[in-house]
Amino acid sequence: MRVLILGATGGIGVLLVERAVADGHTVVVYARSPEKLPQNLRDSPQVDIRKGQLTDAESLSDALQNVDAVLSALGPAVSRGPFHPKGEPLAHAYSLLIRLMKERGVTRLIALGTPSIKDPHDKFSLTMSTLVTGVSTFASTAYKDIVAIGETICREGDALEWTIARVPLLNNGSDASFVAGYVGDGRTTTCLTRIAFVAFVLRELTEREWVKARPLVTSP
Questions:
Q1: C-alpha angle with apex 95: 8 to 152, nearest 5 degrees?
Q2: Which pTM does this prediction carry?
Q3: CB 89 within 8 A of CB 148
Q4: Rounded-to-integer distance, Cα 109 and Cα 22, Å
Q5: Beta carbons of 183 and 116 less than 8 angstroms apart
Q6: The 3-state secondary structure of the chain, one letter per residue
Q7: pLDDT truncated to tens, each residue of the chain (220 aa)?
C-alpha cells in the first residue's frame, strides 16, 4: 500500500515508518522538519518525503494524492504539561485532514489516541480514571486537544473508515505483543511499548478488525 504517515519524525513515528517500509509499503512522510528523519529512511526508495505544515491545505492535499491510507502518530505532548498550545490545534489539523481525505477519496485513517477519549464500551477502572484525571489536571490544554481529536474524527469522519488506537502509558520496551479491548475489560493494562503500538497499527491496516472503533491497545 501507499500510506501517508503523520508525526513521522517523533519517537513513535520513526518506528512506524521503519516497520511500514519493512512490510513493503510505500510511505509518504509529511512533516514540518523531515530532516529529523534518520538518514537511512530519507534515502530509502520506498519513502516519499513532503515538507509542510498541518495548516497548509494545498501541501497536505498534494501529499494525499494516490494514498491508500493515513496513519497518524500525532498527539499532544502531555509531558509539556500546561505548555501545550491552547485552542486544540491538533484537533483543527484533523478537521482539515478529514476534509482533504474526502476530497482525495482516501477513506482509511488510523489515528493515535488515549483513554482521555471515551468509548461506550469502557467500564470503570480506578487506575485508568486516576491517570486520566492527572492528565486533565496537570496538562489541561493537551487533555482538551486529545478529547477534541476524538470528537472531531467521530463527528466529521462519517464517510471514513477510521480507527482510533487509544494507548495508555508508553515506554521504550522491546516487547511487541499487545491486546486490544476496552478500559476495565479485565484484559487491558496501563502500559504499552511504542513498538507494540506500531505492530497494532500495521496489523489493523491489513486486518481491519477495528473500523469505526476506539480500542484501548495495551501490553498483555
A1: 100
A2: 0.96
A3: no
A4: 20
A5: no
A6: CEEEEECCCCHHHHHHHHHHHHCCCEEEEEECCHHHCCHHHHCCCCEEEEECCCCCHHHHHHHCCCCCEEEECCCCCHHHHHHCCCCCHHHHHHHHHHHHHHHHCCCEEEEEECCCCCCCCCCCCHHHHHHHHHHHHHCHHHHHHHHHHHHHHHHHCCCCEEEEEECCEEECCCCCCCEEECCCCCCCCCEEEHHHHHHHHHHHHHHCCCCCECCEEECC
A7: 999 999 999 999 999 999 999 999 999 999 999 999 999 999 999 999 999 999 999 999 999 999 999 999 998 876 666 778 899 999 999 999 999 999 999 999 999 999 999 999 999 999 999 999 999 999 999 999 999 999 999 999 999 999 999 999 999 999 999 999 999 999 999 999 999 999 999 999 999 999 999 999 999 9
Residue 17's identity, in one-letter code, is V
